[in-house]
Design goal:
alpha/beta, Nucleotidyltransferase, domain 5, 3 domains, 8 strands
Length: about 450
Amino acid sequence: MSRFITNDRHTAYLMPPSLEDWLNEDHLARFVVEVIDQLDLSNLTRQYAGRGSRAHHPATLLGILVYGYATGVFSSRKLERATYDSVAFRYIAAGSHPDHDTLATFRRRFLAEVVGVFMQVLELAKEMHLLKLGTISLDGTKIHANASRHSALSHGHIEKLEVQLKAEVQELLALAEQADQVDVPDGVSLPEEIRRREDRLAVMDDAKRKIAARAEERFQREKADYEEKMARRAAKEKEAGKKLGGKPPKAPEPGPKASDQINLTDEESRIMPVSGGGFEQCYNTQAAADVATMLVIATRVTQAPNDKEQVVPMLELVEAQSAVVGMPKCLLADTGYCSERNIVACADANVTPLIAVARDQHHPDWRERHSEPAPLAADAGVVQTMAHTLKTKAGRAQYALRKQTIEPVFGIIKSVMGFRQFSLRGLELVYGEWSLVCLAWNLKRMAALRPKFG
C-alpha cells in the first residue's frame, strides 16, 4: 500500500466546481470583493455608453486592480495573466479574463473616481468600528516617477546644445548644396540628419519655454515672500526705533537659472533628494494615517522636494472630508514640517500640533526622560509652547507614536506591497494612482483589523 496521497489530474469533476471552495473564509480576495460589492460605483457605471460588445463590470476591474496593488502586481499584462494563473484573481474575476488593454484603460480613465471610492471605504471602516479618528500622523515619502533622471535637461545645458545643433544643421545644409558629397559617409541621409536635429531643436525650444514659465511662477512666489519679510523687518525696525542688525533678505532674481531642469519623459516630475543619498526623478507623496489603526485617511502628491508647505493643504483636505471620517484632535509630524505658519494653522483648525522642532539626540541623558521641563514663560509664542509640550512626559509619549504609525505604512507599501515607482505620468494621474495604492493598503489593513475589532 502506498504511503502517499494519489493525485489524479485526468478524472473530470463529478459536480461543477464552485468558486466559494477555492479560498479560505478570511482570505484578502474575499474581503476585497465583499467591500467593493457594498460601494456605490454609479459614477463609474454611468460613464459606459452601452455601445458595442458587453463590457466587464467596473466592480470586477476595480477588484482586480485593488487586489493587484495590495499584493504587488501592478502591470496590466501581469494582472491579465494572473486571472489565469492565480486562484485569488480567478475568484475576483469570477472566471472571466479581462485583457491588459481593458485593465490599463480602466485604470487611466477612472483614477479620478478612485478618490471617491477611497472616501467610501473610509466611511465603511467607520461603520465597522475600525476607524476612530483621534490622532493622526503625517509624513511624506519619495516615489520614483515613470521617467529617468537622465531624460532631464537643464536650461544651461539646453543653451549649449542649441549652439552645437545649429552649427551642425548649417554644416549639413552646406554639404547638401554641394554637387559632389565626397565628405558624406556611406549610408548617411542628409535630409534625415537635418530633420532629426531640427526636431531636437524644436523640443528643446519648447522645454526652454516651459522652464521659463516655471521660473516666472517661482519669481512671483519668492517676490511675495520677500516683500512679506521686508514688511515684517520694517515693522520691527519701527517698533525698535533703529535698524536691525544682520543682512536683510536677498531680493529674488527673475528669469530661469542655468540649473533649472525639465524632464522630457514626465515633465511634471522633479529631481529630488532621496533617503540614502543621491537624487532621483520622483514625486513627493504625502499621507496622513490614524494612529490607532494605521489607516490612511488623507493623501496628496506634490512636486515640492520638502514637506514644509504640506501641512496647510493636508489640513484643508482633512477638514473637507471631516463629515465622513471626523476631525482629528492631534497631528504628529517630524521636523521637516516645523514652521510657525504650520503650527498656527493647526491651532486655527482646533488640532493640537506635535511637530518636532529639531532632531532629538540618539542618546539623551537618562534624567531628561524621567523629568518634566521648566515652567513655560508667560509670553511664550506658539512655537515655544509646542516645544515645551514635546519635552513633557505626556508629549514625548504621544510623539513617540509617530514612528510606529506612518513610517511602517510607507515601509509596507514599498517593501511588502512592492510599490516603488508610478506606472502613470503627470501629476493628476500620479495622484490618482497614489490614491489607489492607499486604497489597497486600507483594505489590506481593514482585513487584518476585522478579527481584532470584531
